[in-house]
């Protein structure tokens, strides 16, 4: 299937000029499914595309987009922050989605989708989280960085982390400080909708027991966490996708 690339005007970030959020969508019955990708990913990844093709075939509404500084959207990746990326999710929902919404949050998208759910509790009916990484800047990065890396960030304002997926990740001091202001796992997270979590047992990016913290803090009575023992951080194998698709079908029917 082919889905056209479109652009949505978004509020300015670091300049007076508005930004452009790139997105692809297909209309259909609700609840509208919104894909919230991971850090430094784009909307054409395998999972985002797989779920879009499934949704379109089923006649369900679906939206995938690129955050500020990601993919085809405007801005520089290094200028981005967790709060800005959470706002991007809200802007996409407000402008493009109708009525009830299911947010699929992958890795960092678990954090941005939870921020969006807190901002729009009346509209987000479910969180569908894949190896979710809320609070990762503080609890998974800063807490584990050597002192020389921390000092480099504090002194020079940036740290470049090698990546297996291309250019190094650029982590700026502003990202760390902003993330510190938007931690979610240190207090109850008020959310009444359904929560589905999928965690790879072989994930070396987000520890398998990290998802348990979300289960512990979310106030919803309808929370299910599925451990895919042989799955990695991507959870992109055909068998992984089938497990998650079946759960998403059931969740759509429930809502």
SSE class: alpha/beta
**Which consecutive residue ranges, at least 5 long each, have pLDDT under 50?**
none
> Quick check: average pLDDT?
94
Q: Using DSSP, what is the number of strands?
A: 10
Task: Give the strand content.
Answer: 25-35%
Shape: globular
Over all CA atoms, what is the radius of gyration? 17 Å
Number of helices: 8
Look at the structure and name the CATH superfamily.
Alpha/Beta hydrolase fold, catalytic domain
How many domains would you count in the coordinates?
1
Under CATH at level 1, the class stands as Alpha Beta
Q: The CATH topology is what?
A: Rossmann fold
Describe the protein.
It is globular and about 50 Å long. The strands form two sheets. The protein has an eight-stranded mixed beta sheet, with helices on both faces. Strands 7-8 form a two-stranded antiparallel sheet. Helix content is 35%, strand content 26%. It has one domain (6-134, 192-254): Alpha/Beta hydrolase fold, catalytic domain (Rossmann fold), CATH 3.40.50. It has helices at 46-58, 82-96, 108-119, 136-141, 147-156, 173-180, 211-217, 238-254, and strands at residues 6-10, 19-26, 29-36, 60-65, 101-106, 124-130, 158-163, 166-172, 194-200, 223-228. The two termini are 26 Å apart.
Short structural description:
This protein has 255 residues and is of the alpha/beta class.
Keywords:
255 residues; 10 strands; alpha/beta; 35% helix; 8-stranded mixed beta sheet; Rossmann fold; 26% strand; two-stranded antiparallel ribbon
Write the layout of secondary structure elements.
Elements: E1 6-10, E2 19-26, E3 29-36, H1 46-58, E4 60-65, H2 82-96, E5 101-106, H3 108-119, E6 124-130, H4 136-141, H5 147-156, E7 158-163, E8 166-172, H6 173-180, E9 194-200, H7 211-217, E10 223-228, H8 238-254
Parallel strand pairs: 3-4, 3-5, 5-6, 6-9, 9-10
Antiparallel strand pairs: 1-2, 2-4, 7-8
Helix pairs in contact: 2-3
């Amino acid at each position: 299937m082919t889905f056209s690339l479109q652009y949505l005007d978004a509020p300015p970030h670091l300049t007076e000029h508005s930004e452009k959020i790139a997105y692809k969508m297909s209309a259909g019955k609700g609840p509208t499914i919104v894909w919230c990708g991971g850090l430094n990913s784009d909307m054409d990844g395998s999972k985002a595309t797989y779920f879009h093709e499934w949704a379109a075939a089923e006649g369900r509404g679906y939206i995938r987009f690129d955050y500020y500084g990601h993919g085809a959207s405007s801005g520089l990746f290094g200028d981005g922050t967790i709060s800005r990326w959470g706002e991007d999710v809200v802007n996409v929902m407000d402008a493009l989605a109708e009525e009830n919404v299911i947010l699929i949050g992958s890795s960092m998208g678990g954090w941005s989708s939870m921020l969006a759910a807190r901002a729009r509790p009346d509209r987000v009916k479910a969180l569908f989280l894949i190896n979710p990484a809320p609070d990762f800047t503080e609890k998974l990065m800063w807490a584990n960085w050597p002192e020389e890396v921390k000092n480099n960030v504090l002194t020079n304002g940036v740290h470049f982390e090698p990546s297996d997926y291309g250019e190094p990740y650029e982590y700026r001091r502003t990202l760390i400080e902003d993330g510190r202001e938007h931690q979610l796992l240190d207090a109850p997270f008020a959310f009444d909708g359904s929560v589905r979590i999928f965690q790879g047992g072989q994930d070396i990016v987000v520890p398998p027991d990290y998802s348990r913290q979300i289960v512990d803090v979310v106030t919803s009575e309808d929370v299910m966490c599925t451990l895919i023992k042989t799955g990695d951080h991507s959870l992109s194998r055909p068998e992984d996708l089938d497990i998650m698709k079946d759960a998403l079908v059931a969740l759509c029917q429930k809502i």
